[in-house]
Amino acid sequence: MKRLYARLVLWLIRPALEDVERRVTARIEIEAASRIDGDMSLWAHVTRR
Fold first, then answer.
1. In a domain, 23, yes or no
2. CA 20, CA 30: separation in Å to the nearest integer?
3. Nearest 5°: phi and psi at 10?
4. What's the domain of life for this entry (predicted)?
5. What is the full DSSP assignment across 1-49?
6. pLDDT digits (tens, 9 = 90+) for 31-46
7. How many Å is the maximal CA-CA distance in the chain?
8. Is residue 27 part of a domain?
């Protein structure tokens, strides 16, 4: 009975967990992309001198 209850809980919360994971992943990707853009523009500025 315990396992059945655990599976039911997982089945109910899995969409919420996947949504949170998707949001966190998207935020990390956006942050990484903006950081890379900043590094590239800084490098371009440094190499122009």
1. yes
2. 15
3. -60, -45
4. Bacteria
5. -HHHHHHHHHHHHHHHHHHHHHHHHHHHHHHHHHHHHHHHHHHHHHHH-
6. 999 999 999 998 998 8
7. 71
8. yes
